[in-house]
Automatic annotation (TrEMBL):
InterPro entries: GPCR_Rhodpsn, GPCR_Rhodpsn_7TM
Spans traversing the lipid bilayer: 27-47, 101-124, 144-163, 183-205, 237-258, 278-300
PANTHER family listed in its UniProt record: G-PROTEIN COUPLED RECEPTOR, G-PROTEIN COUPLED RECEPTORS FAMILY 1 PROFILE DOMAIN-CONTAINING PROTEIN
Compartments it resides in: Membrane
Organism: Adineta ricciae
The organism's place on the tree of life at top rank: Eukaryota
Official protein name in the record: G-protein coupled receptors family 1 profile domain-containing protein
Classification via Gene3D superfamilies: Rhodopsin 7-helix transmembrane proteins (1.20.1070.10)
Domain G-protein coupled receptors family 1 profile positions: 39-287
Keyword Protein transport: no
Protein's membrane topology: Multi-pass membrane protein
Primary subcellular site in the record, as a coarse category: membrane
Length: 336
């Protein structure tokens, strides 16, 4: 009788874990999908204004926001439907299974490397060396944006070959390839971006401190003249984005390594359920990280808030005023 009770209690606990995972997925990915799309569109509108889009850092932010739309509407939405509502769209067709994982992996990496390129750009822009500052130019930025997209579309093209839903479940069905993919993703989409962001963030801060000390007055004054308050605000945004990236993205590759290292370890049903929950949670954190971009911009950058307010004033309220004037003029004409 006691054994039956224990088994029943264990089964109830496992069912609870899976139910909490479903609820957790609905709310976290639902929030990320809504806030992410809203934030990405706002970022595109703000940084695309005529006096903003000429800045190379703004160009990277625009490219990052556009690529994040693919991240949310392909990766986030399908994961939310699958784990939150048990609607497995990408299990229906083999081609959809392959394309879904291909786009998801590629467009998780692509936005990260736009932030890295923006960090590198700010390092060159803040340099006291005139030749280095020349590397921060719109022409170079446009080439790097296109190159970044093509690079990661090629790097993750193997997903189109190895992912399949032959048994009705979209997966790789190849343990060796699974090892390769997770290690590649941990390096290319987590450890390497974090390392590069930290390196160039630190180098940029070092340049700014050097400018402030004015060790070489002639060069420093020229650098200050080439860097506006807008540039310093964009550098501040990048630093905070790196911090949030570190906090929210690193758990995923760490769990991947743990999961692969314990692949052949015998596990109880409760441990399997807990690891399933953790695995899903660290995936959700990736999308939460992307959706937090707009919150960082609004809370940290006065420049972004001012530009957003100006955008609303000029594009929305002006159109309403113009519409009101047209109606008033039309009514006045009718009276005459």
């Amino acid at each position: 009788m006691s054994n039956t009770t224990a088994v029943s209690t264990q089964a109830d606990l496992i069912n609870q874990i899976y139910r909490y995972n479903q609820i957790f997925t609905r709310y976290t990915l639902g929030f990320a999908l809504t806030m992410g799309n809203f934030g990405s569109i706002l970022d595109i509108l703000v940084f695309s204004q005529a006096h903003m889009r000429k800045n190379t850092c703004s160009m990277y932010f625009i490219a990052c926001a556009i690529s994040e739309l693919f991240t949310f509407n392909v990766g986030d939405s399908t994961r939310m439907l699958n784990f939150g509502y048990k609607i497995s769209i990408y299990n229906m067709f083999d081609w959809l299974c392959r394309v879904r994982y291909y786009i998801t992996f590629a467009f998780v990496a692509i936005p990260h490397y736009f932030i890295i390129l923006a960090s590198i750009d700010r390092y060159f822009a803040s340099s006291r060396n005139a030749r280095r500052r020349q590397w921060s130019s719109p022409r170079i930025a446009r080439r790097l944006i296109i190159g970044n997209i093509l690079l990661w579309l090629v790097v993750y093209s193997h997903c189109l070959i190895f992912y399949t839903n032959q048994t009705g479940q979209c997966s790789t069905y190849d343990y060796a390839y699974d090892w390769f993919l997770r290690i590649q993703d941990a390096i290319c989409a987590a450890f390497l971006p974090l390392l590069l962001m930290c390196i160039f963030g630190w180098l940029t801060l070092k340049n700014i401190r050097a400018i402030g000390k004015q060790i070489r007055p002639n060069e420093d004054v020229h650098t200050l003249n080439t860097m506006s308050r807008k540039d310093f605000q964009l550098i501040k945004l990048l630093i905070y984005q790196v911090a949030v990236f570190s906090l929210l993205f690193m758990p995923q590759p760490c769990f991947f390594i743990y999961d692969l290292s314990t692949y052949y370890t015998p596990k109880s049903p409760i441990r399997v359920a807990i690891e399933f929950f953790i695995n899903n949670a660290v995936h959700c954190l990736v999308y939460i990280k992307f959706s937090c971009t707009i919150l960082i911009n609004l809370s940290i950058s006065k420049l972004f808030r001012v530009e957003l307010y100006r955008l609303i004033q000029t594009k929305i309220f002006r159109q309403k005023r113009q519409h009101a004037v047209i109606i008033a003029t039309h009514r006045g004409t009718e009276h005459h």
